[in-house]
Amino acid sequence: MSDHQYVIDATVENFPQILEHSFIAPVLLNFWADSCESCKTLTPQLLTLSDEYEGRFFLASVNADEQQQLATQFAAHSLPAVKLILDGQVIAEFTEALSETEIRAFLNQHLRPPEDERLGQAQQLFDKGEDEAAMTLLKQVIAEKPESVSAYLTLAYAQVRNSDITAARETLDTVPENLAQTLEVTSLKGRLLFTDSLIGAPRLDELQQRIIDNENDSEAHYFLASYAIVRGDYESGLEILFGLMSRDPEFRDQAPRKTMITIFDMLGEDPISTEYRRKMFSLLH
Description:
The chain is 55% helix and 9% strand. The protein contains 14 helices and five strands.
């Protein structure tokens, strides 16, 4: 499936990057298995549409047999199961083999208008590790098309990924007032509320070394969780916070528990939130 330009083979390891894609364009998670007969009809239709729509959505293909953790996380109990992710959240889904006309109607209900093609070029540069060139390109798009919310968001996420939290804040502060209250911008600003704890924090590699040296370094664990949350990897962040809550519940006036509750509020009914609510309840009771 990787022969298709806008198709990603999803794994647990690359899923944080797939979530980041959902802030550029919707991501369609297609859970399939060799034993699913209707998947054999549905999947080729989705592949064809991903080519035709030319990047207006990304297709993330999930082999449910091999990626059971993702299947459980997204409650893909029966196949086919197709979930549409926008801005890091599941916003729609279907669990049957639809006709091509029905799939088009489903997509068109949620797709954004075509974006500047330079956004796709910037993402390709990020994928190659050429972050500076990608960010320069995004700044050009913003200068010429200040109404392009995706350009702001993509740039801000890149800055977060590079631990440049101040720059990410400044990028979002320049979003025009009439766009600043869109779901995409407010969602990212919500994540950046966690960045206050990262101002002046050690870099990720330093924190990882601190934990190697002392696995009970609560501050290092908390910083790592904050970094994960800011970049949208809620599951990793919650797992670190849950471990910290188990070992050191009084750290920073019960910060692990309070931070987890804040994330639950941000995620709503997301399966990740449900899982960790249950874990927290079991730990507390």
